[in-house]
Amino acid sequence: MNLSVLLWLVAIFLALAAVWGFLGRLGDETPEQIKAWERAMGEEGSAVGRILTSMARPVSRLDAMQGILPSRQYRFLRSRLIAADKFGSDVDIFISVQVVALFIAAGLVVLALFSKGILVFGLGALALGIAGWPWNVVSKAAKKRADEVTDSLPEFAELLQMVIASGAMGLEAAMGFTADRVEGPVSDEVRNMLTIIRNNPSEEVAAYTLAGERLGTPEARTFFASILQAQIDGAKILENLASQSRGLRQAAYQKQRAEIKKLPVKLVVMFGVHLFPLLFVVSLLPAFYSVAHI
């Protein structure tokens, strides 16, 4: 199979994946959808992201996009978006952006079919990058946020334990006090959780669950679920927090050890990438110079 046939197959696949999103008529946006799109636009800092998100907004209003039903894949994607805190944490927005990215990638592949030389590979690489951009953004943001949660959650738990041990505050007041003194995504989600509880006390269980889901790590889910369960059962929250703090600090320590163990491999790779080309040039340059002056 030559390159042109392969590119045509890729173009047909991308076109079929993108075209279905443009079948239907535009519908009206709900107030919740408007807020989600405004949040998604506000979160996006790159020019490529703003362009794709702007182009994707009309796509989300098409009838074909409205027929997406929740499924196991839908729930998995939603959990990843919530953990990454990207695309307004809305599955419909992400899918709309992905459809637009595939459509643009298909156009670039078609252009590559009529190009020659290195331009073919350049357009192909650009098409691949744009097609995979939405999921790449989600994956990187989720990993970065998970690292921040792993680093800040032990500190939050330990400070919360000390505040409650003083006996001057209840649980929710202590959590608000701690959130004001510890920076990071954990404090942000705690403040959001307390706001939900103050506005609607009956949503307490949902607020604790949502905080763990939005932080996206198993440790965070366990931490908030354990505090909630201890509060519901009337158990001693201080003992629960002491146990949670030890476990979280140990998990963070193990993660740091794992990262340190990877350093030798990373250093070898960096050494090879940066030094070997220089050695190659330095060793061959005198030989080329000698040949040129024979």
Write structural notes for this entry.
With 294 residues, the chain is mostly helical. The chain folds into two domains: 143 residues, no CATH class; 107 residues. It contains twelve helices and no strands. Helix 7 crosses helix 8, helix 7 runs antiparallel to helix 12 and helix 10 packs antiparallel against helix 11. The longest helix is centred in the last third of the chain and has 56 residues. The two termini are 45 Å apart. About 2% of the residues have low confidence.
Topology:
Elements (H helix, E strand, L loop, with lengths): L2 H17 L11 H13 L3 H13 L3 H4 L5 H13 L6 H23 L4 H48 L5 H9 L5 H15 L4 H12 L2 H16 L3 H56 L2
Helix pairs in contact: 1-6, 3-6, 5-7, 6-7, 7-8, 7-12, 8-9, 9-10, 10-11, 11-12
Features:
single chain, 294 residues, mainly alpha, 12 helices, 0% strand, flat
The fraction of residues assigned to DSSP E strands is under 5%
What's the number of helices?
A: 12
Give the termini distance in whole angstroms: 45 Å
Order of helices and strands: HHHHHHHHHHHH
Task: Enumerate the spans where pLDDT stays under 50 for 5 or more consecutive residues.
Answer: 21-26
Estimated radius of gyration: 26 Å
Q: How many distinct beta strands?
A: 0
Total discrete domains:
2
Can you give the mean pLDDT? 77
Structural class: mainly alpha
Portion in helices: over 70%
Overall geometry comes to: flat
Largest sheet: none
